[in-house]
Structures are given as C-alpha cells and as structure tokens.
Amino acid sequence: YWHHDTIRIRDFSWLGDSTWWCGTYDPCWLQPRGYGNNWYQILERDFPEVALGSAPGDELELIWDQRFAMEHDYDYGYIDISEDDGETWNTLHFVHNYGFAGQPGRGSDWDDAMYAHVELDLSAYAGIPFRLRFRFESDVAYSAQDQYNNPPMNSVQDGAWQLDNITFLKNAEDTLFYDDCESGNLGWIH
Questions:
Q1: Is 59 exposed, middle or buried (CB count within 10 Å of its CB: 0-12, 13-18, 19+)?
Q2: Residue among 173, 177, 162 at smallest CA distance from 18
Q3: In angstroms, rounded to a whole number, what is the distance separating the alpha carbons of residues 128 and 141?
Q4: CA 160 – CA 2 distance, rounded (Å)
Q5: What is the pLDDT at residue 100?
Q6: What is the 3-state secondary structure (H, E, C) of the chain?
Q7: Average pLDDT for residues 1-9, to the nearest whole number?
Q8: Residue 54: how many CB atoms within 10 A of its CB?
Q9: CA distance linking residue 168 with residue 123, whole number of Å
Q10: Stretch 138-158: mean pLDDT
Q11: Is 71:101 a contact under the CB 8 Å cutoff?
Q12: In whole angstroms, what is the distance from residue 132 CA to residue 78 CA?
C-alpha cells in the first residue's frame, strides 16, 4: 500500500504535490481512508549513490518529513537497514502514536514540533553498501478498517504513515540522495 498520493498536504507548501503514503481508500471501512488490520508494508531501496558518495568517517544523516496516525502500543513504523542485501535487518528507529498506555493515542501531523521532521545519524554506514526500508506493521484490530474516528484524538484518521523529502546528507552540506516524492519511484520497491 505504499504509493504516491496527495492526501493531507494542502496546507504544507514544503511537501510539494505528493508524498509517499502507506494507506488506501476503501469505502467499505468504517473510516474510508487509512490503513487496515494485519498489515505488513515495506518501502525499500538500495543506496549505491550514498555508499559511493561517502567514506568511512564521514558524517551521514538520513532526514525526512512525516505524519502518522497508527494505534498506540500495537501498530508501528520502523526504519530498518541491511548490509547483506536484505538477508538480515537492523532496526534503527521507530514511530508510533504517542499518549497514555492502553489508549489508541494521538497521531502526528506534518507540523508537529517533536515528530514531523526526523534527522537520523547513519554515520556508521558511510561508505558501506546498504539497503534501507520503511516498514509498517499493524495488529489484528483497531485501524481505519474497523474503528470510527475518535475526535479530538483522531488516532488512526488517514493513517498509517506518510513520508516526504527523504534525504541523505553528507557532512551537513552534500546531498547524496533526495526524494521529493514528485520525481517518480526513484528505485523504491513497494
């Protein structure tokens, strides 16, 4: 279900005309836009341009903008990396709704001060061939498929996960890769 879409970007000029969205439209669901139960969705890509454009010792950052709405404590987004063509994966970072335990939580919009813009240090992978993936997993219940919206929390409204402006930056100034989500798939497998 990872695909380019225009959902929820109207008031955020830095997003351009589309984003990657892990979600779908289904008129049979209780919320007709969002994600379903028992999802395992992957957006992945090899990054030879990053391996060739950097060297051990370089500062390497993965930067992206995001919004998410997924059940707290049960549904998660992960950022994984593999150095062996996907045989094994190491989880670097994860996202999920925030809030109190046992509650569906509150999602994060594109302008959330704490969660909307992520900068992840990947300096340990500078000069090394790797594959990166954004992975989303949901459990057996509580998604747009089977839950009405719950204002003002809007826990899974238009969920699960959206990404934009995915960037690899070397030494805080050299862009080795940039996905504005308007330039096609750029080698991503989804």
A1: middle
A2: 162
A3: 39
A4: 10
A5: 84
A6: CEEEECCCCCCCHHHCCCEEEECEECCCCCCCEECCCCCEEEEEEECHHHHHHCCCCCCEEEEEEEEECCCCCCCEEEEEEECCCCCCCEEEEEECCECCCCCCCECECCCCCCCCEEEEECHHHCCCCCEEEEEEECCCCCCCCCCCCCCCCCCCCCCCEEEEEEEEEECCCEEEEEECCCCCCCCCEC
A7: 97
A8: 23
A9: 11
A10: 97
A11: no
A12: 10
What letter represents residue 103's amino acid?
Q
Q: Pairing between strand 19-22 and 76-82?
A: unpaired
| 164-186 per-position pLDDT tens digit | 999 999 999 999 999 999 999 99
Count how many residues are written for the chain. 190
- 124: exposed, middle or buried (Cβ count in 10 Å: 0-12, 13-18, 19+): exposed
**Tokens matching residue 25:** 């439209």
